[in-house]
Amino acid sequence: MHTFQQQRRQAFLQKYQHRARLLISCPDQPGIVAAVTSFLYEQGANIVESSQYTTDPKGGTFFLRIEFDCPEFAAKKERVETLFRGIAETFQMNWRFHVHTDIKRVAIFVSKEEHCLLELLSEWQAGELLADIPLIISNHEHMKSIVEPLGIPYYHIPVTKEKKEEAEQQQISLLKQYNIDTVVLARYMQILSSKFVAEFPAQIINIHHSFLPAFVGARPYERAYERGVKLIGATSHYVTDDLDEGPIIEQDVARVDHRHHPEDLKRIGRIIEKTVLVRALKWHLEDRVIIHQNKTIVFS
Fold it and tell me: How far is CA 35 from the centre of its chain?
């Protein structure tokens, strides 16, 4: 890690050493916010940010994200969680606490396209992407010269139809060895098996080079050109067994016209892809995303 990164990281850890987050989803009913905020007050916490949303005021699902400062919270997190279970059971909550300074560990998967990887590494080097990147995995060797000077281990694991299962098992073993929290598919042009996805539920983030649900699957820019679209886009989503149909985190578009050929669409699209992926990953790292059915609530 470079000196600048170390300084930014140290400053972050110092500034937010007592900060934590609480994410909740549960059936909506009166008293949830009062119960939660009273509980946090009793633990000596000071709320610094709070966002909430209800799908339907009459019997919908309630979502809440709270950031708070609480002296020495990391040391007493387990005790606080034990005490909170009573409230959680009363309101039938899905919930989790997260200590702000517990930096998530991210593995990046990449193939031959470099733009998304370069954007992620640039943000990471600048201290704007607060994550540890212990390794990068690729089915090609193309990115090795980019990655290795940064001191990040680069694992080249070829994937063929005949040895796909073996390759995925190698990948899974590496991810567990490095205690990975999040997998980012930065234009990794392979379809993951159900077994792989099941190992990391709601932990795999993909960037798809179209404005989903349009042009699912391969060659979306060519198909967009053939259809004569006037907008192209990119979508970052969590990976599920259904190809390109997982919960969407972020999307963006750009206007195009009849003068743009497939290569033009790809060039414009690369800019959208990398910015959408970075935004989605940042929100995930900051615990701003709650998955509900096949959608997301994003407290951005």
Answer: 29
| Proportion of the chain above pLDDT 90, given as a percent | 90
Query: What stretches of 126-261 show up as alpha helix (H) in DSSP?
Result: 144-147, 164-177, 194-199, 220-227
Sheet holding 231-238, edge to edge: 154-156, 132-138, 105-110, 182-185, 204-208, 231-238, 248-255
Asked whether 130 and 103 are in contact (CB, 8 A), the reply is yes
- Residues 196-227: pLDDT tens digits? 999 999 999 999 999 999 999 889 999 999 99
In the chain, the domains with their CATH numbers are 17-99 (3.30.70.260), 105-298 (3.40.50.170)
SS3 assignment, position 108: strand
CA dist 126 to 8, 17, 223, 258, 271, Å?
A: 8, 21, 36, 38, 19
**Spatial separation of the C-alpha atoms in residues 235 and 151, rounded to whole Å:** 30
Question: What interhelical angle do 115-125 and 262-285 show, nearest 10?
Answer: 40
Mind telling me the catalytic residues?
244
In this structure, the number of other CB atoms found within 10 A of the CB of residue 51 comes to 14
Count of helices and strands (H, E) across the chain:
9, 13
Considering Cα of 46, then 49, then 54, then 60, what sign does the dihedral take?
negative
Q: Taking a C-beta distance cutoff of 8 angstroms, is the pair 14, 102 a contact?
A: no
Q: Roughly how many angstroms between the first and final C-alpha of the chain, as a whole number?
A: 28
| Inter-CA distances, 146 with 108, 132, 190, 204, Å | 13, 17, 21, 23
The pTM assigned to this predicted structure is: 0.94
SS3 173: helix
d(CA 97, CA 201) in angstroms, rounded, equals 18
Element (H, E) at 134: strand 132-138
- pLDDT, tens only, 103-113: 999 999 999 99
